[in-house]
Hints:
Chain A is mainly beta and 155 residues long. The first copy, chain A, folds into two domains: 1-61 and 101-137, Beta Barrel (Elongation Factor Tu (Ef-tu), domain 3); 62-95, no CATH class. Chain A is 5% helix and 30% strand. Chain A is built from two helices and eight strands. Chain A has helices at 61-64, 138-141; strands at residues 8-11, 30-35, 51-57, 78-79, 88-89, 102-113, 116-120, 128-135. In chain A, strands 1-2-7-6-3-8 form a six-stranded antiparallel beta barrel. In chain A, strands 4-5 form a two-stranded antiparallel ribbon. In chain A, strand 4 and strand 5 (88-89) form a beta hairpin. The longest helix of chain A has 4 residues, at 61-64. Chain A is globular, with a radius of gyration of 16 Å. The termini of chain A are far apart. Chains A and B meet through strand 3, strand 5, strand 6, strand 8 and helix 2 of A and strand 3, strand 5, strand 6, strand 8 and helix 2 of B.
Amino acid sequence: MRRLKPIGIIHTPYKKDGEAPHQAYKSKEVGEIEVFKEHEEGLKDIEGFSHLIILYMFHKSVKRSVKKEHYLNSFGLLVKPYLDDTPRGLFATRSPNRPNPIGLTIVELLERKGNILKVRGIDMLDGTPLLDIKPYVPKFDQKNNVKIGWLEGKV
Amino acid sequence: MRRLKPIGIIHTPYKKDGEAPHQAYKSKEVGEIEVFKEHEEGLKDIEGFSHLIILYMFHKSVKRSVKKEHYLNSFGLLVKPYLDDTPRGLFATRSPNRPNPIGLTIVELLERKGNILKVRGIDMLDGTPLLDIKPYVPKFDQKNNVKIGWLEGKV
């Protein structure tokens, strides 16, 4: 299968594991997405979008798994989320320790300067490798009548 | 960098490139997400969620790039979207032909039977490799006062 190939680096105020918020919606922090110069042309027209879907590598997630109490079997398929005391299925959580360590956060685009995007609402560690940017489009990405299972009342 | 590792296969009615809808929000089609048995335990608690974020490989996107008229430079950083006549920056589009060929669709979960998830609102080709499933949580994933740039009036 294809290898993941960073197309940039995300600069954030969160320098160490533990400093980053568990969920971006609680973050009003501003950071910078640096898209490598070779991909800058792909940013044309992005200024028109107020929100962007950012895909990135959970590059520190292997280290996190060392906190064994959070991962209850050897395959990491059951996890104890920070919001709950019950072990939950990995795919019913947003835990960073996943078979494919791809993170997803929707950020607000404040400004573009060349290959640098100033964004608000970030939750990733400083130095996180960027994998993709997609425009956030409510017609595609917004759903109604949503049920959120074990997270009900917790977020 | 890490290799992408399929954790399942997505079964859909779209057998050939060209049959799949350009955007899932127009699709009411039902398909099945088959999570490989080795990852089934990670599906615990998923039944509580009505909507799921599906990440998958655009495994046919390299073939698509042969349609040269849609990719206006050798790096594929400018594309002519099907909704528009103007070349747009790749990262301001949802084009499948991306440096990291990761697709994202939010589907409605209808039913779970063991390692099979019956879902509505799919737009990927039959046989698409599954990379990740994340629960869709409005508090994290829903944004207000959204501007959609060149897509305004087109979706």
